[in-house]
């Protein structure tokens, strides 16, 4: 039986995550498997990989063939590097302690690279949020200026209307008072003549 290390798709449409499994090569993609050795979520930045390192190393050691994507995942996690170093120990190129030291150095470099990627993503996100905030402040300031101009224009129009109304009332009052004073004087002689 040929065994494969491959991915089983799970999740909803457009948001897939995968289980890393060891399965018979003749089994369907999402079908029966021998052992689940981890999970892979490409929806995060950087992608989240949870892998049982010892079991993956065991299956690689007994001849399980990873698919292309599974090979990339195992390489990223260091399973293939450890297999290579164990092969060197078996051939007598170096001892187990030297292999462990080389693997730890490689793993430290890999973690530093991942941490720098996370830091850059965080900085980019902070810069993007700051730019959005500045743009929003500029839009709000423009809106506030437009509202202030509109209120000032309305207040000016209202003041002009009140002034015009006051002037009109003053003219009307002046017109009404003037004829009221003169009219009784004209009526008085007419009343005398009627007598």
From TrEMBL:
GO terms for molecular function: structural constituent of ribosome. Keywords: Ribonucleoprotein, Ribosomal protein. InterPro entries: Ribosomal_bS16, Ribosomal_bS16_dom_sf. GO terms for biological process: translation. Signal peptide: none annotated. It comes from the Bacteria. Residues 176-195 have a biased composition (Low complexity). The keyword Magnesium does not apply. Residues 154-195 are annotated as: Disordered. One of its GO terms (cellular component) is small ribosomal subunit. HAMAP family: Ribosomal_bS16. This is Small ribosomal subunit protein bS16. It comes from Porphyromonas loveana.
């Amino acid at each position: 039986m040929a065994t494969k290390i491959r991915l089983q798709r799970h999740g909803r449409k457009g948001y897939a995550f995968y289980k890393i499994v060891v399965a018979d090569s003749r089994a369907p993609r999402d079908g029966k498997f021998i052992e689940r050795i981890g999970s892979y979520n490409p929806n995060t930045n950087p992608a989240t990989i949870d892998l049982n390192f010892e079991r993956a190393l065991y299956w690689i050691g007994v001849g399980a063939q990873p698919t292309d994507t599974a090979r990339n995942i195992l390489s990223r996690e260091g399973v293939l590097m450890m297999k290579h170093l164990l092969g060197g120990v078996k051939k007598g190129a170096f001892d187990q302690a030297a292999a462990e030291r080389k693997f730890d150095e490689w793993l430290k470099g890999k973690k530093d690279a991942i941490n720098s990627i996370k830091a850059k993503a965080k900085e980019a996100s902070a810069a993007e949020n700051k730019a959005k905030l500045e743009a929003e402040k500029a839009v709000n300031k423009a809106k506030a200026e437009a509202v202030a101009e509109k209120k000032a224009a309305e207040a000016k129009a209202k003041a002009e209307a009140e002034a015009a109304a006051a002037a009109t009332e003053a003219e009307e009052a002046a017109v009404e008072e003037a004829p009221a004073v003169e009219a009784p004087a004209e009526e008085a002689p007419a009343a005398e003549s009627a007598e």
